[in-house]
Amino acid sequence: MELAAGIDFGGTFAKIGLVERSGRIRARTQVAMDARESFEGIVRPVAETLRGLIAKEAPAERLVTIGIGTPGFIDKTEGVLIGGCENIPALQKRSVQQYLGRTFDVPAFAENDATSAAAGELAFGAGRSLSSFVLITVGTAIGGGLVLDGKVYRGWRGFAGEIGHLCVNRDGLWCNCGSRGCLEQYASGTAILRVYTEKLRKRGENPDSSLTTRGVVDRASAGDTCARDTLEEAGMWIAQAFGSLLNVLDLEACIVGGGVSEAGEVLLEPIRRHLPDHCWPQIGNGVSVRIAELRNDAGILGAAAQAFERLTR
Amino acid sequence: MELAAGIDFGGTFAKIGLVERSGRIRARTQVAMDARESFEGIVRPVAETLRGLIAKEAPAERLVTIGIGTPGFIDKTEGVLIGGCENIPALQKRSVQQYLGRTFDVPAFAENDATSAAAGELAFGAGRSLSSFVLITVGTAIGGGLVLDGKVYRGWRGFAGEIGHLCVNRDGLWCNCGSRGCLEQYASGTAILRVYTEKLRKRGENPDSSLTTRGVVDRASAGDTCARDTLEEAGMWIAQAFGSLLNVLDLEACIVGGGVSEAGEVLLEPIRRHLPDHCWPQIGNGVSVRIAELRNDAGILGAAAQAFERLTR
C-alpha cells in the first residue's frame, strides 16, 4: 500500500504519522524538539524517527511522499521557509522539504500548517463535500487556509491564507506582523485569554494567573457568563472577517479549527448570528459555518493530504 | 475568423463589440437603454443591433460566443442575474445569457462586469503577464475581479470579487449592501466627490454644484491641493483593502481601473506608499500596483475575454 508521511512541526515537538490515501493513520509517533538546535539538529532526529517508524510499523509498504507542515511563509516551489516561524529559528531560510526529499528519495512538500490543515479538511474532514471554504485555526495565533474551486489555494509564492492578518479594526491594536487591527489581536486564543482576564478584573474578580485559553473555553462551555461574553466577542470579530471574505471569495463554507474550536456551538452560534451583518445577503445565503473535524490529527493528516494532492498533480 | 461578441450593459446604454481572439475590436456600436423597459424591451434591441453589426461589418466571419457583462450577482451556470443590479430592474431574476445564446445559437456567458473587466485585463491588458491579481474598478461604485492561479476566479455561485464591500472601517458609514464601513463608502467616485466637497466647505469654499468626480480627478491632476488630499485619502483606504487581500490571497499585483483610475499616479502613488502599512512585509514585497489598460474598451473586451475563456474550457 502507498503511504504518505505527514510531519507537523510545532515549537515543542514534531508529530509524525504514516497515512493511507483513505486518511487512515497507520502509525504515529512524535519527536521532542529543542527550538535552540541547529537545522541539522532538528531535522535529522525527525528523519531517523520516521525511518524507524516505517521499519517497525509498515516495513512492507511503499512511502510515496512526505508532507511537512510548519508555521510561517513557505515558498511553494523549493519549500524554503521565508519567514514568520520565529518559534523555530533554525528552520528559517532552510528547506525541510529538500532535506527530507533527498534523505528518503521521494517527493516531499512543505506547506504552511494552516494551509495543510485546510488540505486535510478537504481530503478527510469537514470540507470533504465542499468546493470552496476558508478554514481558520484559532490557537495561540490565528492561521488560515483556503480551498477554492475544489483545490487548495496557495497564492503567488505560497503565502496565501493569512486570515489572522485581515484587518478588522483599522485604528486597533498593533500586531506582530507590523500592521494594526488584525483579526489575530481580537480572536486568537491569546486574545481570548486577555479579554477574559480584563473582563474578570473589571467585574471585580481576581483572575487565577494559571488560567489558560483552554480554561476560558471550558468555563464558557460550563455556562460562565463572562467566558461566554468573551467568546461572543471573539465570534463577532470572526464573523466580520468571514463576512469580508465571503464578499470577496463567494465561499460555500467557513470552518473553524484549532484548540479554541473545541468550544463548539458556544463559539459558532455567535459567528452565525453576526455573519449576516457583514456580507451581502445573496452571498451569505446558504453558507455553512462549521467546526473542523480532524482536531488533534489535523497536523499529521493535513501534511499528508497536501503531499498526496501535490504528488498527483 | 472566429469572433466573440462582447456586450456591456450599463444604466444608459449597452456597448456592443465584435472581438477577435487577439483582442482586436473588429467593429463596435451601442444601443440606448431605457432602464424602465421590460426584459424583452431591453434585450431584443441589443440582439437586433448585434445581428446588424455582424451583417454589416463581419458577414463572412463566424460568431463563436457571446460574452455579457452586467452589474450585480450573476449565477455562473445559468447566467441568471440574482440581484445587485438595481439600475436595470428588468434584468433581475432573468438570464440575458440564455436569451442571446438561444437567439444566436452559440454558447453565451454572462458575468459581473468587474469580473469581466478582470478577464479582459488578463487576456489583453495590464494582467497579461500575471498569474494572480485583484482588479478594482473605481467608478460611481467599486467593483472587483480576481485572477488566481492564472484563471478568472468566480466563486461558489459566481458572486466573487465584491472588493467594494470589504469592510475597512467597522464602525463606519452604512453601505447600500446593508453592512457598515465598506471600501465603496470611502474610495468610490461617489465618495471622492463627497469628501472633496466636504473638504472644500470646511476650507471656506463654496463648491460648484455641477462638480463631478471627473472634475475632482482633473483638479488633482492639475495640482489642486484639496483634490490631491482627497485622492490621498481614497488611496489610503484602497491600500488598506489591498493589504488585507494580499495577506489572504498572496497576489502578484493590484490593479486599479474604472473612471477614477484616470487619475494615474496621483492615485497610485498614495496606494503604493500606504500599502506596506497593511500587509506582511514578505507578502507585500514585489507586489506591483498598476493602472488597468483597457480603459473605455474594458466593457467590450472584458465581456469577450471571459466568453472566449469559458468557451475553451
Counted up, domains of chain A total: 2
What spatial order of strands do you see in the largest sheet of chain A? 3-2-1-4-7
Helix count from the secondary structure assignment of chain A: 10
Query: Quick one: how many beta strands of chain A?
Result: 12
How much of the sequence of chain A is in beta strands? 15-25%
**CATH fold title of the largest domain in chain A:** Nucleotidyltransferase, domain 5
- What is the averaged pLDDT score of chain A? 96
Largest sheet report of chain A: 5 strands, mixed
Specify the overall morphology of chain A.
globular
Provide the CATH top-level class of the largest domain in chain A: Alpha Beta
Radius of gyration of chain A: 20 Å
Computed structural class of chain A: alpha/beta
Explain this structure to me?
Two copies of one chain form a homodimer. Chain A is α/β, with parallel strands linked by helices. In chain A, α3 crosses α10 and α5 runs antiparallel to α7. The longest helix of chain A has 25 residues, at about 225-250. Chain A is built from ten helices and twelve strands. Chain A has helices at about 40-55, 95-105, 115-125, 185, 190-200, 215-220, 225-250, 265-275, 280-285, 300-310, and strands at about 1-10, 15-20, 25-30, 60-70, 75, 80-85, 110, 135-140, 140-150, 150-155, 255, 290. In chain A, strands 3-2-1-4-7 form a five-stranded mixed β-sheet. The first copy, chain A, has a five-stranded mixed β-sheet with strand order 10-9-8-11-12, with helices on both faces. The first copy, chain A, has a two-stranded antiparallel sheet with strand order 5-6. Chain A has two domains: about 1-120 and about 295-310, ATPase, nucleotide binding domain (Nucleotidyltransferase, domain 5, 2-Layer Sandwich), CATH 3.30.420.40; about 130-290, 2-Layer Sandwich (Nucleotidyltransferase, domain 5). The interface between A and B is large, with 48 and 48 residues.
